[in-house]
What does this fold into?
Amino acid sequence: MAVSSWKEGDIDVLEFKEKLVCGDGDTQMRNQFNELLEAGAKTFVFDLSDVPYIDSAVVGEIVSCAKRVRQAEGELRLVVEPKGRVEDMLRLCSLDRVLDLYQDRATALSGTKN
It folds into this structure.
């Protein structure tokens, strides 16, 4: 699985490039996120706009990351392709009500909804 991470100001960006499935995707997401959170990161952008598919294990990991970052008084923002499969999956699970979804990275970085 291809994942890149970098800082934009005080925001940690994790960009995922391939389908995310149980065993590899969820584990790498968890490990990368935990490392940054333990280092003091508070605001995260998960860029999933180039991810064609996520399974339920990854959805669970995203929810877990959101919960942990909120407990640390931080924020998790998700970039998803509008009308794409990832957005459909999150909306199907009604997670668009509890997760912050953005259509592009620039908007997610600014924190302003479309």
In short: The radius of gyration is 13 Å. The longest strand covers residues 3-8. The chain has a mean pLDDT of 92. The domain at 3-109 is CATH 3.30.750.24 (Transcription Regulator spoIIAA).
